[in-house]
């Protein structure tokens, strides 16, 4: 039976040269076991890493056949983009060879790429073809700046850092609410204004040395939103994996939710109940407010 390794080359592949050479997880896997074929999944931010990894494998493991397939992922910090792009992977592998003829080992990306790692692992748990998960984590910081170092925030690529779509009166209105209300919902007509307000709230709270986390609700795929929000537990080759959710991943005291009304009503109520019970401050930004939520509701002035 053909042994096939499936991997996504990232920042650290094929290896990283700092004070000392650090092998990427793909090279570690190839040195630990014998494979007949390696399938490299190319993501746009890591195209050069794919090319370098391919050349390295050809030089060091000439017997290994290499195939490269591109996945339409540009923003590694987007749950929806990762989930949608990875969803066709099972069919792609079936097209490459029957599960009866191939033994697939799926190498997970490093856990520091949170969105990519969680989407990949949660998707694998739904697969029907036989496979084995391989996880070789790297105790390193990400080379790509996916998160603001001062503020816990997600999906920064959708954020308008220069809120020119908001008037001075609108900003003043929001500042007053933030000063007075620990928890509130704010009806904001457009997605652009919601994203701009996310940046505004982040800057305002950061200036007060408060740790805040932003969650782009519309970016959470429906089928895995609960796992991403609350966390999940599974096992990988007899090892227990406990993944914290966005609501308990960091010691944030303030939360901002963008497009909050894109979540199911049941999920909205559960989030509000949990944050209130744990005494966290939060702002719910959406096109409209949910009248069933037991919090104060406001509307952004038109000008």
What spatial order of strands do you see in the largest sheet?
A: 8-10-13-14-9-15
Apparent shape: elongated
Class derived from helix and strand content:
alpha/beta
Secondary structure: helix percent: 25-40%
- SSE run: EEEHEHEHHEHEEHEHEHEEEHEE
Provide the CATH architecture of the largest domain. Answer: 3-Layer(aba) Sandwich
Q: What average pLDDT do the residues reach?
A: 87
CATH topology title of the largest domain: Rossmann fold
Low-confidence stretches: 142-162
What is the total domain count? 2
Give the terminus-to-terminus CA distance. Answer: 67 Å
Approximately what portion of the residues adopt beta-strand conformation? 15-25%
Q: How many strand units?
A: 15
Level-1 CATH class name of the largest domain: Alpha Beta
Q: How many helical stretches?
A: 9
Radius of gyration: 22 Å
Question: What's the story with the biggest beta sheet?
Answer: 6 strands, parallel
Written account of the structure:
The longest helix has 16 residues, at 191-206. The chain folds into two domains: 2-134, 3-Layer(aba) Sandwich (Rossmann fold), CATH 3.40.50.10770; 152-299, Rossmann fold. The chain has nine helices and 15 strands. It starts with a strand and ends with a strand. It has 303 residues and is of the alpha/beta class. β13, α9 and β14 form a beta-alpha-beta unit. A six-stranded parallel sheet has the order 8-10-13-14-9-15, with helices on one face.
């Amino acid at each position: 039976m053909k042994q096939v390794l499936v991997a996504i080359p990232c920042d650290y592949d094929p290896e990283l040269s700092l004070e000392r050479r650090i092998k990427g997880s793909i090279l570690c896997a190839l040195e630990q076991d014998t494979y007949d074929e390696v399938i490299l999944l190319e993501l746009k931010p890591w195209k050069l890493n794919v090319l370098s990894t391919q050349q390295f494998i050809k030089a060091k493991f000439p017997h290994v056949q290499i195939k490269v397939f591109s996945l339409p992922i540009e923003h590694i910090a987007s749950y929806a983009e990762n989930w949608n792009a990875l969803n066709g992977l099972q069919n792609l592998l079936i097209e490459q060879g029957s599960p009866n003829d191939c033994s697939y080992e799926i190498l997970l990306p490093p856990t520091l790429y949170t969105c990519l790692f969680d989407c990949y692992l949660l998707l694998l748990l739904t697969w029907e073809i036989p496979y084995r998960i391989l996880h070789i984590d790297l105790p390193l910081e990400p080379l790509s700046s996916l998160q603001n170092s001062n503020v816990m925030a997600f999906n920064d690529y959708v954020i308008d850092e220069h809120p020119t779509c908001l008037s001075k009166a609108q900003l003043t209105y929001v500042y007053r609410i933030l000063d007075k209300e620990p928890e509130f919902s704010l009806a904001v007509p457009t997605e652009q204004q919601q994203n701009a307000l996310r940046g505004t709230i982040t800057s305002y709270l950061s200036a007060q040395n408060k740790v805040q986390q932003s969650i782009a609700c519309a970016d959470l795929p429906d089928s895995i939103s609960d796992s991403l929000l609350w966390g999940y537990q599974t096992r990988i080759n007899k090892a227990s994996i406990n993944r914290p959710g966005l609501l308990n991943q960091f010691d944030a005291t303030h939360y901002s939710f963008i497009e909050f009304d894109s979540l199911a009503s049941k999920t909205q109520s559960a989030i509000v109940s949990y944050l209130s019970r744990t005494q966290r401050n939060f702002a719910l930004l959406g096109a409209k407010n949910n009248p069933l939520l037991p919090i104060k509701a406001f509307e952004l002035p038109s000008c």
